[in-house]
């Protein structure tokens, strides 16, 4: 079956969720929202899925356009205010959050605050919505629907969500011993972070994409593996599930 870039990214995001993980899906996260439901349906039935609709483990008949919409309360097992979710993160009870960004640098720091100088910005962005708080306690998977040099910059204009800061052991030295970015999944590729330097490293390219395409669309030097793999594609069963739960193509919103 043919698939869209959104469908490919959803399945790759879902693969980052392990069984028994406790996962938080934030605001304006259509692809992670569907990825959580996909993971729970297929390979991670015992994961705990929390969202900004204030519920635990919902199973909606179809996903809503808003990632905080009441549809996301259908068939849930419990209601939990978002403030309680932040407490769970601080107690080390949450494992993973998905994080979007307007800028990402080589150490996985993300910017959702300003483009340009903080006091006189060219663009004022919507802000982090507690991402700085959560990034101190949880693993993050960053997703980017438009991989280009304006997004992947050598140094973000403002650190909204802390990655590995300046690389190496910076997080540990400033008192952030837990969490950190695990993967970056874009419309072109999958990347992770080299364990010692904490610099971004290419893992795989999507079908039809070359390593050179990724290099040309990244504003800093990536660490390159000896052999660049091809990203795994969605199965027929995964595509059927995604399309059944998302008949309105909410998954494509970030590409419009």
General description of the model:
The chain has 256 residues and is an alpha/beta fold. It has one domain (5-255): Glutaconate Coenzyme A-transferase. The protein contains 7 helices and 14 strands. An 8-stranded mixed β-sheet has the order 2-1-5-10-11-12-13-14. The model has no long low-confidence stretch (mean pLDDT 96).
Summarize this structure as a short list of keywords or feature phrases:
alpha/beta; single chain; two-stranded antiparallel sheet; Glutaconate Coenzyme A-transferase
Classified in CATH, the superfamily is Glutaconate Coenzyme A-transferase
Shape: globular
Bin the strand percentage: 15-25%
The spatial strand order of the largest sheet comes to 2-1-5-10-11-12-13-14
CATH class: Alpha Beta
Give the terminus-to-terminus CA distance: 23 Å
What is the name of the CATH topology? Answer: Glutaconate Coenzyme A-transferase
Structural class: alpha/beta
Average pLDDT rating: 96
CATH architecture: 3-Layer(aba) Sandwich
- Contiguous runs where pLDDT drops below 50 for at least 5 residues: none
Measured on Cα atoms, how large is the radius of gyration?
17 Å
Largest sheet, strands/sense/barrel: 8 strands, mixed
Task: Describe the secondary structure blueprint for this structure.
Elements: H1 5-15, E1 22-25, H2 30-41, E2 48-51, E3 55-56, E4 78-79, H3 82-90, E5 96-99, E6 103-104, E7 110-111, E8 114-116, E9 121-124, H4 131-135, E10 139-144, H5 170-173, E11 180-186, E12 189-193, E13 200-205, H6 211-216, E14 229-230, H7 236-245
Parallel strand pairs: 1-2, 1-5, 5-10, 10-11, 13-14
Antiparallel strand pairs: 3-4, 6-7, 8-9, 11-12, 12-13
